[in-house]
Amino acid sequence: MENLNLVSDYSCKLALQAYTHVRNNRTLLTLGGDHSLAIGSIAGVAKALREATGAALGVVWVDAHADINTPESIARIAKPTLIDGSSRQPPFHWMEDTHKVDLS
Predict the structure, then answer these.
(1) How many whole angstroms separate alpha carbon 70 and alpha carbon 62?
(2) Measured in whole angstroms, how far is the alpha carbon of residue 69 from the centre of its chain?
(3) DSSP character string of 60-96
(4) What is the per-residue pLDDT across 55-89, written as a single tens digit (0 to 9) for each?
């Protein structure tokens, strides 16, 4: 992925904004152009939900493209970052277990 550091910086900022909105019971809507938007928005909501209820967030991934991704094939960066935390190294060192999504 090009501009990985930029994507990580933006994702961290977006995660904080998403987290803050959800913790303040505000409606959150994020719109973007590629799968990397999911990193910050889903991470922030997952953290807020886990802190408020102890439950993990589940995600229904609706892909508007004909390639129809599965949990095994979603974006190379979004999947390892949000699901198993394997990208929790620079530049995604800000990710915590509370940001992860539950696939079960």
Answers:
(1) 10
(2) 16
(3) -----STT---TTTS-TTHHIIIII-TT-STTSTT--
(4) 988 877 766 665 555 555 555 555 555 655 555 55
